[in-house]
Amino acid sequence: MVARHDQTTDPVLLEGLLQARRGTAFFARKLNELTDADLDGDSLLPGWTRRHVVAHVGYNARAVARLVEWAATGVETPMYPSVEVRNHEIDFGATLSPIALRNLFDHSAVHLNVEWRDLPADNWHHKVKTVQGRTVPAEETVWMRTREVWVHAVDLDNGATFNDIPAPVLARLLKDITGAWHARGTDAGLLITADGTDMELGDTAATSPTLVSGSLPAITQWATGRGTEGVAATHDGGPLDLVPMAPAWI
Ligand code: ZN
């Protein structure tokens, strides 16, 4: 008999799983609001139709599930054999019939959820490797999936915005992105704050930084490279006409 509830009892992990499942349900809702013809339309991602986004989110669930299977069995199974294979898979998926594309999203999401649900508590600490080559505990797969479903629901461009994304997800995403900039040194001279939070991110050691600020949803949207709406920039106390472009995220 397979258990019908999560094997982990770790409250932090269970909270993370909740955000991943809510995000998956949110993406499903936005996808269901699109007609088959709508799928041919552009997404917010340059060069990608909505079909590409749906295919990518579906194949992402399969890839994340491979990592969970790795943690369950100890048999190394990478997310993708290579970046070329990943990209080819998305281009192929985008050509599927609307029903096949919707099934890809549904089935892959259910499969991933079953893999998470049935992963024994101890195995969540087993190490797996991300597509970027980082070694992480299997717990990290929950966050990897969470940010994909929430952000790409916005990319479907049929009404979802960063305001729909829960604040804890936004805060973690913003810390992830600014952390990546900091590691690469691409945040030089940029100080980032989110209204109503005590977050101060980016080049916190800069003597005369450009301050970029806005609500948590707006500043996170900006950080992901999705425009400057709702974001303001100042330098030496004076407002700038042009908000600087966010450094590259991925
Ligand atoms: Zn993605």
Notes on the protein architecture:
With 250 residues, this protein is of the alpha+beta class. The chain folds into two domains: 150 residues, dinb family like domain (Four Helix Bundle (Hemerythrin (Met), subunit A)), CATH 1.20.120.450; 73 residues, Nonspecific Lipid-transfer Protein, Chain A (2-Layer Sandwich), CATH 3.30.1050.20. It is built from seven helices and seven strands, in the order ααααββααβββαββ. The strands form two sheets. The protein has a five-stranded mixed β-sheet with strand order 4-3-5-6-7. β3 and β4 form a beta hairpin. α2 crosses α3, α2 packs parallel to α4 and α2 runs antiparallel to α5. The site of zinc ion has 3 residues, from α5.
Tell me the helix content. Answer: 40-55%
Overall pLDDT = 95
How many helical elements?
Answer: 7
**Gap between N and C termini, in Å?**
41 Å
What is the CATH T-level topology of the largest domain? Four Helix Bundle (Hemerythrin (Met), subunit A)
SS class: alpha+beta
State the total count of DSSP E strands. 7
Number of domains: 2
CATH architecture of the largest domain: Up-down Bundle
CATH superfamily of the largest domain: dinb family like domain
Major sheet: order of its strands? 4-3-5-6-7
Report on the biggest sheet. Answer: 5 strands, mixed
Overall 3D form: globular
Small molecules (ligands, ions, cofactors) in the structure: zinc ion
Low-confidence stretches: none
Query: What percent strand?
Result: 5-15%
Q: Element order, helices and strands?
A: HHHHEEHHEEEHEE
Q: Radius of gyration, Cα only, in angstroms?
A: 19 Å
CATH class of the largest domain: Mainly Alpha
